[in-house]
Specification:
The complex is a heterodimer of chains A (522) and B (469). Helices cover 35% and strands 10% of the residues of chain A. With 522 residues, chain A is α/β, with parallel strands linked by helices. Chain A has a domain of 61 residues. In chain A, strand 8 and strand 9 form a beta hairpin. With 469 residues, chain B is an alpha/beta fold. Chain B is built from 14 helices and 15 strands. Chain B has a seven-stranded mixed sheet with strand order 2-8-7-6-5-3-4, sandwiched between helices. In chain B, a hairpin with a 6-residue loop joins strand 9 and strand 10. The N and C termini of chain B lie far apart (65 Å). Classes of the chains: A alpha/beta (522), B alpha/beta (469). The interface between A and B is large, with 223 and 223 residues.
Chain lengths: 522, 469
């Protein structure tokens, strides 16, 4: 290994915007109404019912435009993001084409209204339809919709479709259970519960996935659906998945494939071929949409022809005779809406652009590279004293992720994943994903190499882990006091769940912390 | 493998053979295919994908995207009066500049230290929105206004232990469909019954007699909006909230925050939970993709502990005087408690929160007052002028903010016919609501914002005169 460089993040000590500005300063001004307008309607205040007039001005900052710009530029510099290397597992860090960013601001994308006549929406509807066809190819499903604004929202869509499907069969009251696994993303059990289902969670066994026997014991005529991912976040593929789906369907249930971890298997398998009734893709992960700190995102939800009548509406359709696209709202069996309008189409546009730039061969190659890079990274990380992996007895190559544990290092030095994450930032490398709750592996961390990071980047990342493991033994206190070079020092987490101290707004902060707050923040 | 092995893909540094070979050698594998040994052969797809040809060259990709999107007709090159939940407000240039910064654009979930600037921007979003709506607890945004209303209904049900929600019959059918989804179908044991309260056909306001008839001690929440879907300002918010309170129900108010420079904050008239859109605060319409919603309330534990959102709190650091920001009440989310968590949490529209923070910082109290005054005056001017068109009637001619209902029955034309004629002149007429609200006749919902000057309104009126002839 080589010793990684340390990097100093910008440290602006930027005040909270609520204490900035000077009374009277303006960042945006608007004209007065035209003289004829004002003459025709009178004063604005006369148009507001007296009981509903605002009496006290909102206590917002009063700032000039350049001051606002500079404040937020400073804040942006205090975010690491993908300014360097970020191998955030389960989220598939991917290059976000800046061409797509530019195009998203064009009026033909940004200034489009969802209720325009579909004849004026032909370009964007064509993109939606063409991208639907691409996803049908990659999954074997018969129809995709894009109304869900994230992966969890697509899981929710699945639970809504499940309700619609069984309600139509008159079985919904009976089929009120959904089965998932402890390694499925929390959104699967959570959306199932929000939709009113009982949740049964299967636990992992020796091989890294639940047993067929456990599944059989859980399945019954009360089962509405199976919701799971494969491979899981440990990079382990359940080779019995076809049998799982067969058993679920034999029990009369639906099978939903959460393709959160699609990068490692894209072009290698197709959900429908394995028997699944529906699946979802995250366009802000696998398909190159930007993370944005957590959206705007898109959960593309696709299903079989049998389930398609229940999809949220509208569905984009093409009239093959005229070649024109339309929005089909006339869908009697539809479960209705999971969100207003028909999706984050500016994200769908980006995903379509990504898929076109890659092509079928590029998509297959991205999958190859992500799995190759993960196994290369595994080789390097397991050479670090203190790092182990989950299920070490399973020695097959993992797919696009491997889950590691810092348990040994923690026992030997007191340095665990929290300290590691904080110290990594000093090298300009952002913290990795750890693991969803509950942690099945002590002190877990889950990097994902993907296809956008070069071998040199992966080497640097591993060098940083090795360096910190070394420091853990030689200079423990230095690691414990990290970060040293970040925008701020380690935060005090003790207030965050204390009702007397938490404050999600400035006005709550002032109320709870008073003058001290102003001094501290100033 | 790409056939064109001699050329690397611009987005894949490891597509050069040397990188692949070095990694294969390091792990002792002979081929990449070997790495997929976990997947049984009978699971593998061995066919070919029928995908359109790859466009790895940016110049070609750009040409293709622009050609395809060029088939759209935008609201910039046309004159649009569409609203109904997505609005064409001006987005200041620096909002796009900040939201487009690579740091914000590509951030995911680092530490509170490495994400400090973003977390502060989120806190500033919540803080400024809190000032507009008059509330002290504000969560990070949810997917949309309808989703926020749905979450709020579920919060109210958990807080009260009751399962009835009252909503106005004048509510946006689209938004209502989302709320119904969140409240579950009747077959589910935890179903929340959604019942509509009539509106006064003369004023568009909630029918307080019908509200009184439906309010009882089993109602979890009373939801109303101001301005409502039909544009009207609900002038009796305090009476509605007081009635809800008498029955122990939670008052949930939906707002468009761009109106709050001139309209009273919902806290003034008794709201317990405030929801609404953030699209009007600096998000482009994006064909509906600009949608975003928020949830706010008083900072009371009973409420705070029911939020399904991510919540960011200000806190200190190891250095006295320094502030940082961390997730608060994180454990109650589905990330902490899976199916026991509050609804579910995941990706949302968090970049839009940053855009909205910039927008609100630019506007300040005077910006919000000015834009509110300008919009309400021009909207009333538009309504007055439109009503001059023979046979055309403005249904609720008083007490609206930026949207109003136009009835065409007196012209003998349908809204569809009128809009067709307007479109031929480069004008997108108001949303046709005649199918959703048959009692209103051939009715369209027109929207006026700060982008519509007198000249544009006069142009609409001239075009309408011809259209109804």
């Amino acid at each position: 290994m080589s010793t990684p460089r340390e990097v100093t993040q910008a440290r602006w000590n930027e005040p909270v915007v609520m204490e900035m500005g000077v009374p009277g300063r303006r960042g945006a001004v608007f004209p007065a109404a035209e003289a004829e307008v004002a003459a025709a309607v009178g004063e604005a205040s006369s148009l507001v019912p007296a009981a509903m007039r605002r009496r006290a001005k909102p206590a917002l900052p009063e700032m000039s435009e350049p001051d606002v710009l500079r404040h937020y530029l400073h804040l942006s510099q205090e975010v690491l993001g993908m300014m360097n290397i970020s191998l955030f597992g389960t989220c598939t860090m991917k290059y976000n084409s800046r061409l797509s960013e530019q195009i998203s601001l064009r009026p033909q994308m940004a200034d489009m209204h969802p209720y325009q006549d579909p004849r004026t929406l032909q370009g964007i509807l064509e993109i939606v339809h063409e991208f639907d066809l691409i996803l049908r190819q990659l999954s074997g499903m018969d129809q995709f919709v894009f109304q869900a604004a994230g992966g969890a929202h697509a899981a929710y869509t699945q639970t809504a479709v499940t309700r619609g499907y069984f309600a139509a069969k008159g079985e919904l009251e009976q089929r009120n259970q959904i089965i998932t696994t402890i390694q499925a993303h929390p959104c699967n059990p959570a959306t199932a519960a929000t939709s009113g289902f009982e949740v049964i969670t299967l636990m992992l066994e020796e091989n890294g996935y639940p047993s067929i026997e456990a599944l059989k014991a859980a399945l019954s005529n009360r089962t509405a659906a199976l919701m799971l991912n494969n491979p899981d976040d440990m990079g382990i593929y359940n080779p019995q998945i076809k049998e799982w789906v067969r058993l679920a369907k034999e029990a009369g249930a639906l099978a939903f494939y959460d393709h959160a971890n699609f990068n490692g298997v894209m072009s290698k398998i197709r959900a429908r071929d394995l028997g699944f009734d529906a699946c979802m893709f995250m366009l802000h992960k696998t398909f190159g949409g930007p993370k944005g700190g957590g959206g705007p995102a898109t959960g593309a939800y696709g299903c079989s022809a049998e389930l398609a009548p229940f999809l949220p509406k509208p569905v984009v359709v093409k009239d093959e005779a005229s070649g024109l696209y339309d929005l089909d709202y006339d869908r009697e069996m539809s479960v209705g809406k999971v969100r207003e309008f028909f999706g984050n189409l500016h994200i769908v546009m980006r995903a379509y652009a990504w898929a076109r730039a890659m092509g079928a061969e590029g998509i297959a190659e991205a999958s190859d590279i992500s799995v190759l890079a993960n196994n290369y990274m595994e080789k390097r990380l397991l050479a670090v004293d203190g790092v182990t992996k989950s299920h070490p007895h399973l020695d097959e190559y993992r797919l696009e992720m491997t889950r590691y544990s810092l348990e040994k290092l923690k026992e030997e030095t007191g340095i665990g994943v929290a300290e590691l994450s904080a110290r990594m930032v000093d090298f300009g490398v952002d913290a990795p994903w750890l693991a969803h709750e509950p942690w099945l592996v002590p002190e877990p961390f889950t990097p994902e190499a993907g296809e956008m990071w070069s071998k040199e980047d992966i080497d640097t990342w591993c060098d940083v882990i090795a360096q910190i493991a070394k420091e853990a033994r030689e200079n423990t206190d230095h690691v414990k006091a990290a970060p040293h070079n970040a925008a701020i020092h380690a935060i005090d987490g003790s207030a965050l769940d204390d009702p007397a101290r938490w404050a999600t707004t400035w006005r709550a902060y002032l109320k709870k912390h008073g003058a001290q707050a102003r001094r501290a923040a100033g | 493998m790409r056939q064109d092995q001699t050329r690397a893909h611009p987005w894949m540094p490891n597509s050069v053979p040397a990188a692949k070979d070095a990694m294969l050698a390091a792990i002792g594998a002979n081929s990449i295919e070997q790495l997929f040994a976990q997947i049984p052969e009978d699971h593998r797809f061995r066919g070919t994908f029928d995908l359109p040809p790859a466009l790895p060259s940016e110049v070609e990709l750009k040409k293709h995207l622009l050609k395809t999107l060029g088939k759209n007709r935008s609201c910039e090159e046309n004159l649009s009066f569409l609203g109904a939940g997505i609005y064409q407000h001006h987005v200041p240039a620096i909002v796009d500049e900040v939201a487009g910064r690579s740091e914000f654009l590509t951030s995911v979930w680092g530490t509170p230290m490495s994400d400090h600037g973003r977390n502060q921007a989120w806190f500033e979003f919540c803080s400024q929105l809190g000032e507009l709506v008059g509330m002290e607890f504000v969560g990070l945004p949810v997917y949309s206004w309808g989703c926020a209303a749905g979450n709020a209904a579920r919060m109210a049900a958990r807080i009260t232990g009751r399962r009835r929600l009252l909503v106005p019959a004048s509510m946006d059918p689209e938004r209502l469909a989302v709320v119904r989804q969140y409240c579950e179908p009747v077959q589910m044991a935890s179903h929340i019954a959604v019942e509509t309260v009539a509106f006064d056909p003369r004023t568009g306001l909630l029918d307080l007699d019908d509200l009184a008839a439906k309010l009882a001690d089993d109602v979890a929440g009373v939801y109303f909006e101001t301005p409502g879907f039909l544009g009207t300002i609900e002038s009796r918010g305090a009476e509605i909230a007081a009635a809800a309170k008498r029955h122990g129900a939670v008052t949930i108010v939906g707002v468009d925050p761009i109106s709050l420079g001139i309209l009273a904050p919902p806290s003034d008239y008794g709201a317990d939970i405030v929801v609404g859109t953030i699209q009007t605060l600096g998000a482009h319409m994006n064909c509906g993709g600009g949608a975003g919603g928020f949830i706010a309330s008083r900072d009371e534990e009973a409420y705070a502990r029911e939020y399904p959102t991510l919540n960011v709190s200000i806190t200190g650091t190891s250095v006295p005087g320094e502030v940082g920001f961390g997730l608060c009440l994180a454990h109650q989310s589905s990330y902490g408690m899976r199916e026991e968590g509050k609804d579910w949490t995941g990706n949302s529209v968090y970049l839009t929160a940053i855009a909205s923070a910039v927008y609100m910082s630019l506007m300040g109290p005077e910006g919000f007052r000015e834009i509110g005054e300008l919009i309400i005056q021009r909207a009333h001017y538009a309504a007055k002028r439109v009503a001059e068109v023979p046979g055309v009637e403005v249904v609720f001619s008083n007490g609206f903010f930026k949207e109003f209902v136009v009835r065409f029955d007196g012209t003998g034309k349908s809204v569809a016919q009128v809009n067709e004629a307007l479109m031929a002149k480069g004008i997108f007429g108001g949303k046709d609501i005649s199918a959703d609200f048959p009692a209103l006749g051939q009715a369209a919902l027109y929207c006026i914002t700060e982008i519509h000057g007198q000249a544009e309104i006069d142009r609409l009126v001239d075009a309408l005169k011809e259209a109804v002839r």
